[in-house]
Amino acid sequence: MTSIESRWHQLTSALPSGVNLLAVSKGHPADAIRDLVACGQLDFGESRVQEALPKQNALADLPQIRWHFIGRLQANKVRAVVKAFRWIHSIDSLALAERTSRIALEEQQQPTALLQVKLRDDPAKGGWEIDALKDAWPELQALQGLQISGLMTMAPLGVGAEDRSALFRECRHLADALGLEHCSMGMSGDWREAAAAGATWVRLGSVLFGPRQLPT
Predict the structure, then answer these.
(1) More confident residue, 174 or 213
(2) What does pLDDT average to over the chain?
(3) pLDDT higher than 90, residue 156
(4) In the chain, where does DSSP find H-type helix?
(5) Distance of alpha carbon 81 from alpha carbon 119, whole angstroms
(6) What is the pTM of this model?
(7) What is the CATH number of the domain that holds 198?
């Protein structure tokens, strides 16, 4: 068993029931993804279309892979993302949601969408503030090109474990209030707090794959 296979087995056995592993494969080659698919991992996260597409082409013989876009979604990349990814974790404004829905309908797609929320002041990250999301919620629900199924959030750098846990619980409570199933939250350094707080997806990269092998 390779080291990546061993880490995958350790991580998946440690995840609570109802928490899914999203293997963040950005910065890692297609061969590493192929090794994990052989273990049973089917969900992979990428943040740059130009890096993801060659991997998707190299792995075209594995149509069971579910690709998740987890990076910042730029307006001019929406069509490429809609065509290449089944899940989008980073819808952070009404204008972006409307554009993505329109393009998805044009492409005859309906990606599963998660709304990125910003629950603490953090100039490094975007996302909906709670009041703005609640105000826009009726319009978001009416979008036909998106299957809005949850929220995504990230803790600011330097926040302690207790504050991270509180933030993750707030995200879970907000998702529940909106009737949404999924919470994508928790990464390699804080996935345990996120899982305990009600995450349904944890996004694990370095703890699973090891150091990045490709430029990002």
Answers:
(1) 174
(2) 95
(3) no
(4) 3-14, 30-39, 49-58, 78-84, 94-106, 130-141, 161-177, 191-197, 206-209
(5) 26
(6) 0.95
(7) 3.20.20.10
Question: Within 13 Å, how many C-alpha atoms sit on residue 148's CB side?
Answer: 25
Whether 213 maps to a domain, the answer reads no
Q: Token digits for 208? A: 């699973």
- The helix (H) or strand (E) run that includes residue 23 is strand 20-24
Type of residue found at 15: L
No. of H helices and E strands in the chain? 9, 8
User: Does some domain include residue 164?
Assistant: yes
Number of Cβ atoms within 10 Å of the Cβ of 199 = 28
Residue 154 lies in a domain: yes
Assess contact for 101 and 124: CB atoms under 8 A. no
In a domain, 212, yes or no: no
Query: Using an 8 Å Cβ cutoff, are 83 and 101 in contact?
Result: no
Full residue range of the structural domain in which residue 172 is found: 3-8+18-204
d(CA 206, CA 189): 9
CB–CB of 181/112 below 8 Å?
no
How many structural domains comprise the chain?
A: 1
Given a contact cutoff of 8 angstroms between Cβ atoms, the answer to whether 162 and 153 are in contact is: no
- Section 130-135 average pLDDT: 96
Tokens of 3: 């080291």
Cα torsion at 184, 187, 193, 198 (round to 10°)? Answer: 10
